[in-house]
Write a structure and sequence with these properties.
Length: 189
């Protein structure tokens, strides 16, 4: 029932795993910028990790009402975290470099778009009928597909190149995680 949703979450785990990398090849200016930003966004990155883990943990054997509750809370957390990271990135200013302003603007736009998309997924999961197993399963499948689309684009440009190396070298941007395995809840069709 929840296979596609759990699979979509593994896309979110890519972000978390990328943030646990490390590199020391960035300029001092870029490192200073990254240190400032990571100090602000570190708690939000942990929130994202926790939300993704929450969804997959309940997906394995949860009852529809439990899955709905966990997914709703997780989508709210993901929405809130992306909006907060966008605000922190705006406050931090563009990263040093020729394309820093473009990187910043694109990331802010994308994060705000993702925040709205997660808020929409929360509304969708809240509206699912937990009393009808098949309709609930079909609804989760659709939500999982939509979530996968969100995760496929998030953070790629911000965490690439010199900017990405600088961010990934900051302890506050490193998130310890175990990558959850996609699981499937039993279907009662």
């Amino acid at each position: 029932m929840n296979k596609k949703l759990a699979a979509a979450l593994s896309g979110g785990a890519v972000l978390v795993l990328a943030l646990s990398g490390c590199s020391d090849n960035s300029s001092d200016k870029t490192n200073d910028w990254a240190k400032s930003l990571c100090g602000d966004i570190g708690p939000q990155l942990k929130k994202i990790n926790k939300a993704n883990q929450q969804i997959t943990a309940v997906a394995a054997d949860g009852k529809p009402a439990d899955i709905q509750k966990a997914d709703s809370a997780a989508f709210q957390d993901l929405s809130t975290a992306d909006a907060a990271i966008a605000a922190d990135l705006k406050k931090a200013g563009p990263p040093p470099g020729d394309d820093g302003k473009t990187i910043q603007q694109n990331a802010i736009t994308e994060l705000n778009t993702n925040s709205k998309a997660y808020a929409d997924l929360k509304k969708q999961v809240d509206a699912l009928n937990v009393k009808d197993q098949q309709k609930f399963s079909d609804g989760l499948k659709s939500i999982g597909e939509n979530m996968k689309k969100i995760n496929e684009t998030a953070y790629k440009k911000l965490f690439s190149g010199d900017t990405g190396k600088a961010l990934l070298s900051q302890d506050a941007c490193k998130v310890a995680t175990s990558s959850p395995s996609p699981t499937v809840a039993p279907s009662k069709a």
